[in-house]
Amino acid sequence: MKLRALEVITLVVLGCSFASAQTFSLWTAGGSYEFCNFHVITCNSDGVVAGYDDTTTLCGFEYNAPIVGFDATVANDGEPAYGKGVVVSDAIFDASADAYTGLQWTVFQTLTPASGTHGPDALKGSSGWMGVAGSYSGNYFGDNYGFLTAGPPEEGKVARHGTIAGKLPEKLRK
């Protein structure tokens, strides 16, 4: 029964035209653990994406991070995540610092969750998301990628490993 439910979810989220919010959990590249934050997004028929990066439920931040973006396709030419999906800007650095940071986290994510069960070496397929970080001065300071699954993380099963954006630069840590 679980497999059938996953098949239905996968069919529903293949295109960026769903009007109701969809939730996606983000995993490390090796599939060994889920990050504490997760995306809740809605796509409209014009290819606009809006929603939030939930950083309050399991990460313990005071505010969620707004995300906004558009339909996008990344060619399979060596990138860890590719295919039809969305590109979103994510205010996760501002949410984590509870202030304007001048830092930007940008994420490409497919809308097709990985197959398999959660846990080390259990997720199958290609990476479902990749992100890059930079500052208002144009400096690039990090990237990350990994698997994507449907639905939010299970409470109590997500270790506090931080967010997909990694660590803030030293001067912004509280």
Explain this structure to me?
With 174 residues, the chain is mostly beta strands. The chain has one domain. Helix content is 10%, strand content 38%. It has two helices and nine strands; from the N terminus they run H-E-E-E-E-E-H-E-E-E-E. It has a nine-stranded antiparallel β-sheet. The N terminus and C terminus are likely disordered.
Give a summary of the structure in a few sentences:
This protein is mainly beta. The protein has helices at 2-12, 92-97, and strands at residues 22-27, 34-43, 48-54, 65-74, 83-90, 103-110, 129-135, 140-146, 148-150. It has a nine-stranded antiparallel β-sheet with strand order 8-7-6-5-4-3-2-1-9.
Keywords:
disordered C terminus, 2 helices, 38% strand, disordered N terminus, 174 residues, single chain, mainly beta, nine-stranded antiparallel beta sheet, 10% helix, 9 strands
